[in-house]
Amino acid sequence: MRVEPRADRLLCPLGIRGVFLLEVLTLTRLGETLRAYQARDPAARSRLEIFLLYPGVHAIIYHRAAHFLYRHKLKFLARFVSQWSRFWTGIEIHPGAKIGRRFVIDHGMGIVIGETAEIGDDCLIYHGVTLGGTGKDHGKRHPTLGNNVMVSTGAKVLGPFKVGDNSRIAANAVVLTEIPPNATAVGVPARVVRIAGEKVDYASSVDQIHVTDPVQKELQAISSRLEWLEQLMDEQARSQNQ
Fold it and tell me: What does the alpha-carbon distance between residue 202 and residue 150 come to, in Å, rounded to a whole number?
């Protein structure tokens, strides 16, 4: 009786090590990741330079390996790889975090991404960002970023809610509630400005400073109203004098 060879042996003669390497390389999608870095970082001169010298790329590669081990119940080894990555890159990503394609980490030092955090495709994160929880709850306790989200320097996104597609978090904002799609979060705690009907590619434009502040808009509206009331009172006083 002829025995058919197992598919995993045909694909990976090295067994689990071959599966591991194949999956890490497939999930990393190194080429498109390098192109994303090159498109969003004006200081990047070549893909070789990005691959060899950018800690964000190294952190992503390490995380793919750690996440593979985590999903296969090798959690001690997964955490070991994660801590090794943290030591070398200054970027701490828990092995359980789920990260999409073309994820760009600019500079990266001081970034912390929690266990149940989820990051969509084409996201951009700067140094000092935290995707964390708010307590010791079990289950889903870290945020979910949609596609094409930008989180600027020093921002903290804390809690098990979603940041909608095409949104951006301003520098040093502290986000504690859900952010709708196509919106901007500003301040401590963060306030939301919805940008209706405008398609914006924040991750490609990489603009951290031209962010509309809703409090400033309200103050401008109050100031305009006050000026109008003063003019009205002046006109009434003149008419009474006449």
Answer: 6
pLDDT in tens, 143-155: 999 999 999 999 9
Q: DSSP string covering the chain, please?
A: -PPPPPHHHHH-TTTHHHHHHHHHHHHH-HHHHHHHHHHH-TT---HHHHHHH-HHHHHHHHHHHHHHHHHTT-HHHHHHHHHHHHHHHS-EE-TT-EE-SS-EEES-TT-EE-TT-EE-TT-EEETT-EEE-SSS--SS-S-EE-TT-EE-TT-EEESS-EEPTT-EE-TT-EE-S-B-TTEEEETTTTEEEE-TT----HHHH--SS----HHHHHHHHHHHHHHHHHHHHHHHHHHHH-
Of the chain, the percentage scoring pLDDT greater than 90 comes to 29
Q: To the nearest whole number, what is the mean pLDDT of the chain?
A: 80
23-30 average pLDDT score: 60
CA 158/CA 141 separation, integer angstroms: 8
